Amino acid sequence: MRGRLFDPNYKPQFAGHETFPLRHLWLRKAYDAVAKSGTIVSRGIFNDPNAIVLLGVGKNMVSAIRHWGLACKVIEETKGGYIPGPVGNALFGPAQLDPYLENPASAWLAHWLIAGEGNRATTWHYVFNHVSAQAFEKSTVVSGLRETLANRPGVRVTESTLSRDVEVCLRSYITKGTANDTAEELAEPVLTQLGLITTTRGSYDFRVGPKPSLPDGIFLYALTAFWQQNASTANTLGFDLIALERGSPGITFKLDVDSVAERLVDIERISGGIYAWSDTAGMRQVIRRKEVVPDHFLPLTYLGCK
C-alpha cells in the first residue's frame, strides 16, 4: 500500500470546484436537483441557464455544487446523465438520516470521501495523507504535490492550478470571510467544524488527537472502504495499516495511535460482531467475520446505535 496517488487506475483531478469549498446545503441542492424526477437526469441539469434559478446560486457555484455532489457520492454520473448516489439516498432520501446536514457525522463523512478516498479531490487526499509534518506551509504542499505528480506518466498540471487548488483545500478547513463576500460565500464551509487544521501567520498545523466528535459509525465506514480498496480479499488487517498507512482512517482523520487503538479494542461491539480485535503474540489486527459495504454503518451512526 502506497496510497491512491500511486495507483495507475486513479485519475488525479485539480479542478471542478470553481475555487469554492464545500458549503452547507450544497449537497442537498445537488441531490434534490437530480432526484426530483425519479429517473436519470440529463447532463444539462447543471448547465442549463435555469440551474441558476433552480439552485439559487451563481453560475460558478452551480458547477461547484455538481462537483462536490459527485465527490461526496450524493449524486453519480452515468452514461445518460445523473442519478442519486448512495450517500445522497442515505442522507436525503426516504430514510432522511440528515436532511439538512446538521449532524457533525455528515461533515466527517464528507471529509472521508473527499480526503480519504480522494474522489475528485487529489489535493485534499495529498494534504491529509502525504504531508507527514504536523506543521507545514502552503508552498511546501505545492512543491511536494508537484514532485509526486512528476512520477505519474501522462499527468500534466500547471503550477498555478496546483497553487489554487491547495488554497481552496486549506480554506475548506479554516474560516476566512471578508466584508465583500456574498451571503452564500460567508456561509461556513462544511469541513471547518472538524477543526482538523489551524493557521497562524501563513503556517498551518494539523490537529492530531482523539476526535471525540467522530462517530464510531463513520470510523467503521472509513475502515470498510479502506479495506475494500486496499485488501479486499484479506480477512485480517494489521493495526499499523489502519493507523498509519496513507489513505487509512487513522491518517485521514488525524487520529493519534492511542485513539485508533481505543476504537479498535471495542470494535466487535460497535460493529455488531462484523469486526473483531485480536492481539495475540504481538500481532495486533482486526478480523473481518463477514463482508459488508461501507453504507451498512451509516444508519448505525445517525440513529445513535453505537
Describe it for me?
43% of the residues lie in helices and 10% in strands. With 306 residues, the protein is mainly α. The chain has three domains: 76 residues, Arc Repressor Mutant, subunit A, CATH 1.10.10; 103 residues, no CATH class; 87 residues, Orthogonal Bundle (Arc Repressor Mutant, subunit A), CATH 1.10.10. Helix 1 crosses helix 3, helix 5 packs parallel to helix 10 and helix 7 packs across helix 8.
Keywords:
306 residues; mainly alpha; Arc Repressor Mutant, subunit A; three-stranded antiparallel β-sheet; 8 strands; globular
Topology:
Elements: H1 26-35, H2 50-55, H3 59-71, E1 75-77, E2 82-84, H4 86-92, H5 104-116, H6 122-130, E3 135-137, H7 138-149, H8 159-171, H9 183-186, E4 197-200, E5 203-206, H10 216-231, E6 236-238, H11 239-244, H12 249-252, H13 257-265, H14 267-270, E7 275-280, E8 283-288, H15 298-302
Antiparallel strand pairs: 1-2, 3-5, 4-5, 6-8, 7-8
